Amino acid sequence: MPSIPASLPTRRLVASLGLLLVAVCMPVCAQVHPGQAQLVSEVAKDTGKSPKALNALLDRAQKQQSILDAISRPAEGKPWKEYRPIFLTDKRINDGVAFYREHRDLLERTAKQYGVPAEYIVAIIGVETSYGRNTGKYKVLDALVTLGLYYPPRATFFRDQLKTLLELPASQLGGPIDTLTGSYAGAQGWGQFMPSSIRDYGVDADGDGHIDLKNSLPDIFASVANYFAKHGWQTGGPVALPAQADAAAKPISVGDSSPQWPLEQLEAWGYTSAQPLNPGAPTSLQSLEGANGMEYWFTFQNFYVITKYNRSPLYALAVHELAQEIAEGVRMADARQ
Asked: Domain named Transglycosylase SLT: which ranges (predicted)?
């Protein structure tokens, strides 16, 4: 028996009811993020926080395609000859010199306390956020949900960061979690600290009971210096020095930047420096494609420490060279006075 067509008023009523159900269901029946239930269970168990409140917070987070696009094309994928000009510009150097001189007293007190030169504290802030001018506009919660729950290549790392963010006490956050902004990777503040770095290395240097990495220069400077100190910075030790390769120098490939050989071993393989160095100093070698051909650098423990901030040797060398330029610029400006 054929079906009987519904009357026009009936069809309109059904359509209206359907739209009403959709409107009512949207805030109640919103699809949760993959793995959200397990994450909430873990955070609630570890902290005693309300699962209902955690779910409400995560339900408001948005997966951002632009974040997935950004992480697929990091600047560190460029060769050194293209990477260096991004950070070693006249403006960034001059701004760094001005920043150092403006905040000299606080910077040098912090440097003395932690044993980390002030110019490296400034260089980190210069490379990361152009001295606090660009701390990122992504919601940190969106960034970490996107990368922790929707980006399989590095999901383990970013999920851990998301969990840490949800577990941090209010005293270690610069405001409510869903108001925090930062980079596409979820890093916050002038020094771009990930949640685990805030937890482990953030410092309440101004003593106000909060770690504020956006508005408190004492907290910002001390946290960067503390990060370096806790990772093994050697006060007064070298960072990186240019090397020359003999025509028959042994090709060397390194997996990371940790010092792997005594300097005399690298010299035996055909690499030398114009500067006298301790032949037994633990050293590594970076071979980089520079603007005028291959560049070779002896790198030391302090270079390796910078790569704990960002594992790319290009990043570490950019920080080192910017720090040296800033220090020289400060010396020249002081001499003119």
From this structure: 37-324
